[in-house]
Design a protein that fits this description.
This protein has about 425 residues and is of the alpha/beta class. It folds into two domains: about 280 residues, Aminopeptidase, CATH 3.40.630.10; about 130 residues, Aminopeptidase i, Domain 2. The radius of gyration is 22 Å and the shape is globular.
């Protein structure tokens, strides 16, 4: 296992929810000497400084400021990614007790491949709001059970002889995790009791929560040459790790920044998502905090560049007809530059030229992706964020298979290429 994959494995395991992902990233930055800024108070920043801040717990921003005066040519480089991933969230009052079993009432988050979640060991992680000193100051605590808690059992083939012909799932009926065998009496508050016990708090102190159900499984190499890597949450922890590695290595004279958003999988239009003005607010606070005018800030934005990093579709060996006939990224083929005439990806000719030049100058392998004309494909945060902050942007990522599955697959060499691209961005 390469050092880059070991690092990715550790980050994935420490990030079973967006809040854990933001915390894990902040701990890495803190150990590297970055100073924390409180999102809700006045910032004290200066040239030569290295800083980070968390936005509503699930968005992480880090930046370094060069010692030279910021200008249009050197003022702004941004690496962006997202911390959330497709899956399920536990609803309030989630206990469904039926026939002596206890299942959890959940709702889907993003576009998960549902059948891939069946029969797997699942755990629970997220954040819980407890009673605080007053109504406007609840105590927020992270929780991760770190062991299998529930599972979504398949229906036996004997009871559904057509299961291998394809199955449509009713999300309210078929995708409910089994969490307890309760017997005839049945504890109607089994999850509430469990959560209070897990957190060592009184039940009446739990006011609310945002809890993920996540696959309790580890990543591992596979293939006869060990050149593949299978893991949960490669979308989009591959890009998060690359962004963090990039900002840690930043040594240019300008303003270097990474922005790790939340809620990309559900549209980005939240206060901590790429569709908010949070990035614009960060930029304004930095420029004005350093004594620059708004005019100088806009000059920096107009002369800057943002690299939006999110996973890309790799050619599937069993479905080669699903990929564009002339743009066929493969695993271990290097960074993928993503383009779409619809602008679901933000890359334009100039942005693509920037990425290709960075790759060529730093011997980074790259390839290109465009959707088939008859398959619309997905989108990511690049176009959304660059509409809020009008900066030249390009979309890139590592190619993977089984995107949005409970487990995804990548090539072991591609993380190294993406890390190097982010480092080149800030060099």
């Amino acid at each position: 296992m390469t050092e880059e994959i070991k690092q990715l494995k550790e980050y994935v395991e420490s990030s079973p929810s967006p809040w854990h992902g933001a915390y894990a990233g902040s701990e890495i930055l803190k150990k590297a000497g970055f100073k924390e800024l409180n999102w809700g108070t006045k910032w004290d920043i200066s040239s030569g400084g290295r800083y980070y801040t968390k936005v509503y717990g699930a968005m992480l921003v880090a930046f370094t400021i060069g010692t030279e005066k910021l200008n249009k040519e050197n003022s702004l480089r941004i690496g962006a990614a997202h911390l959330d991933f497709p899956g399920f969230r536990i609803k309030p009052a989630p206990e469904i007790v039926k026939e002596g079993y206890g299942t959890l009432n959940i709702e889907s988050y993003g576009g998960a491949i549902l059948y891939s979640w069946l029969d797997r060991p699942l755990s629970i992680a997220g954040r819980v709001a407890l009673k605080g000193k007053n109504a406007f100051s609840p105590s927020i605590q992270l929780v991760d059970c770190k062991e299998p808690i529930c599972t979504i059992p398949s229906l036996a083939i004997h009871m559904n002889r057509k299961v291998n012909e394809g199955m449509a799932f009713n999300k309210q009926k078929d995708i409910l995790p089994l969490a307890a065998v309760l017997g005839k009496e049945g504890n109607k508050h089994f999850f509430e009791d469990f959560l209070a016990q897990e957190m060592h708090v009184a039940k009446e102190d739990i006011l609310s929560y945002e809890l993920n159900v996540y696959p309790y499984e580890y990543g591992y190499n596979l293939g006869v040459n060990k050149d593949l890597y299978s893991s949960p949450r490669l979308d989009n922890m591959t890009s998060v790790v690359a962004c963090i590695e990039g900002i840690l290595a930043a040594n240019s004279s300008g303003l270097n920044m990474i922005v790790l958003f939340d809620n990309e999988e559900v549209g980005s239009r939240t206060k901590q998502g790429a569709g908010s003005v949070s990035l614009m607010q960060v930029l304004e606070r930095i420029y004005t905090g350093l004594g620059y005018s708004r005019e100088e800030m806009w000059q920096g934005v107009n002369g800057g560049f943002m690299l939006s990093a999110d996973v890309a579709h790799g050619l599937h060996p069993n479905y080669p007809d699903k990929i564009d006939p002339t743009n066929k990224p493969v695993l271990n083929g290097g960074v993928v530059i993503k383009q779409a005439a619809s602008q679901s990806y933000a890359s334009d000719a100039r942005g693509v030229a920037v990425i290709k030049s960075l790759c060529q100058e730093n011997s980074i392998p790259y390839q290109e992706f465009v959707n088939r004309g008859d398959i619309p494909g997905g989108a990511t945060l690049g176009s959304i964020a660059s509409a809020q902050v009008p900066i030249l942007t390009a979309d890139v990522g590592v190619p993977i298979l089984a995107m949005h599955s409970a487990r995804e697959i990548m090539g072991t060499e591609d993380q190294h290429a993406l890390n190097n691209l982010l480092k080149a961005l800030f060099k």
